[in-house]
Amino acid sequence: MSKQTSDKRALAASLIRQALDLGVRKELRSALEHALDLAEQGTPKELTQLHYDRLKPSARLADPNRRGLIVKATSTGIKRWLYRTTDPITGKQVEHTLGYYPAMGVAQARQAWSEARARRAAGELTKAASGDANKAQMTMAELTGQYVRHASGKLRSWRQIDRLLSRHLLPECGAVVLGDLTQAQLDKTVLKAHRAAPQQARKLKSAISGVLKFGKKEELLPAGFAPHAAELPEVDTPATRTWVPQTRDLRAFLTATRDMGQDGEALRLIALTGVRLGEALEMRWDEVEGDRWTIPAERMKAKRPHTVLLSEPVSALLDARRGNGSDFVFPALTDAHAPRSRHALGHAWQDRRKELGLSDQFTIHTLRKALATWVAENGGGVDLRNRLTAHTVAKGIDAHDNQAELNKPAAEWWAKWADHLIAIEAENVVTLGEARA
Predict the structure, then answer these.
(1) For residue 6, what are the contacts with CB-CB under 8 A and spacing of at least 6?
(2) Which CATH class is domain 247-436?
(3) pLDDT, tens digit, for every residue of 182-223?
(4) I want to staple 264 with a disulfide (CB 3.0 to 4.6 A). Which of 33, 77, 230, 260 is the partner?
(5) Which CATH number fits domain 140-231: 2.30.29, 2.60.120, 1.10.150, 1.10.10?
(6) Helix (H) or strand (E) segment spanning residue 79
(7) At residue 59, what are phi and psi to the nearest 5 degrees?
(8) What pTM does this model have?
(9) 4-63 per-position pLDDT tens digit
(10) What are the DSSP E strand ranges found in 161-319?
C-alpha cells in the first residue's frame, strides 16, 4: 500500500471515529463501525466465516472478490445471502435471494453465486420476464417481505408476525422460489415449530396464512401455485393456563431478583405493577411524572393509554436507576444493538427458574395473574382488576359511557400489593401448607 493511500485511510478512520463520537445509533452506527474496520485494516483478501458471524443486525457485508455477493442482516439478526446485479432488460439493480446464513454456509453461497452469474450470462436470471414467469421466480422471502411491509401499516401485531416468519419460515422456505414451493414444505415448517413451541405454532400458522392470502389478493402467485392456507396442518390448541404462583414461588422469585442486576430490577417492576413484559422493557423516563407512569396507547395491547400509580417500592426502584444516560429506564434490555437484547430477559428468568427448581409454568406473564388473583381474593372487584391489568372487557353502557379512571382505588391496591410482596420477601407471610409444616 502506498504512503498516499495509507494517509487517506488514516484520515478516513479519524473522521469515522469522530462521527461515532457523536453518539449515532442503530443502523448508522453499525455501518460506521464496519467502515472503520475497513479503514483501519483494509479490505480483507478473503472473507471468512468469522466475518459473517460478527455481522450485526441491520448491517450488510459485500464479498470483495465476488461482485454482487452480499449478506444482509435484518433487525432481528436473520442473515440472507443475495446476488445483486443489474437486470439486462430494464437496466435496474435487482437482488436475488440465494439462501440464509448459517444454513447456507460460505462455500455453498459462493457456489450459488457462481451459478447465478452463469444463469444471468445465459439470460435466464432476469426480473423483467413478463407475466407468470416473473411471479414463479419470486422467492418466498421476497413475498414474505412484501407482506410484512403491508402488515406494518395494517396490523398492530406486525412485529410479532415478522419475528415468527423470520425465525421459522424463512430458514426453511425463504430461498425457495414460488414456482417450486410445495404444500409439504410449509406443512413441515408448521409441524417443526409445533414440536418446539405449540403456542408459537398456532401464531405461525396464522402468519403463513396471511402471507399466502396476501400473495393471492395482490396477484403475486404464479399460475398453478399449489400451497393453500386452508391446507396447513392442524395444530393442537394448548390448554388454558390456570397456574398462578403461590407464596413460596413469589418468595423464591423476589429473593432471586436481588442479584440479577438490571434483569432483576425489570422483573421486580413487572411484579409490582402487573404490566406486560414489553410495556416494562420499553419504559421511557419521559413517561414518568411524579408518582405516575403513563404508557402511551401505541405500546398498549388495548390501544388505550394506561396510567400506573407508582407505589413507594416502585418509585424507589426508579430513583436508583435515574441518570443512566438513556431515554429508556432499562436500556440494555430495550436497544436491539446493545450487548443484550430485550428477549434475553425471558431466557434469563427461565435459566434462574430452573436453578431454583420452580415450575416451568412460572412465566413472567403469570406475575400479572398473581396480582389479579390476590386482589380478587382480598375483595377487589372485576372493574378494579381490569383497571390494574389494563384489560378492556366492558360491555353495554360501560363500553361507551363509563369512563371512570378509578385512579384513587387503583393506587391504594397497587400499594397494598407492594406491601404484600415486601412481606413475602421478608418471610412475614406463609401459606397454610407452610404453617402446618
Answers:
(1) none
(2) mainly alpha
(3) 899 999 999 998 888 777 888 999 999 999 999 999 888 887
(4) 260
(5) 1.10.150
(6) strand 79-86
(7) -105, 175
(8) 0.52
(9) 666 777 788 888 888 877 877 766 776 777 777 777 665 556 888 888 888 888 888 889
(10) 288-289, 292-295, 306-309
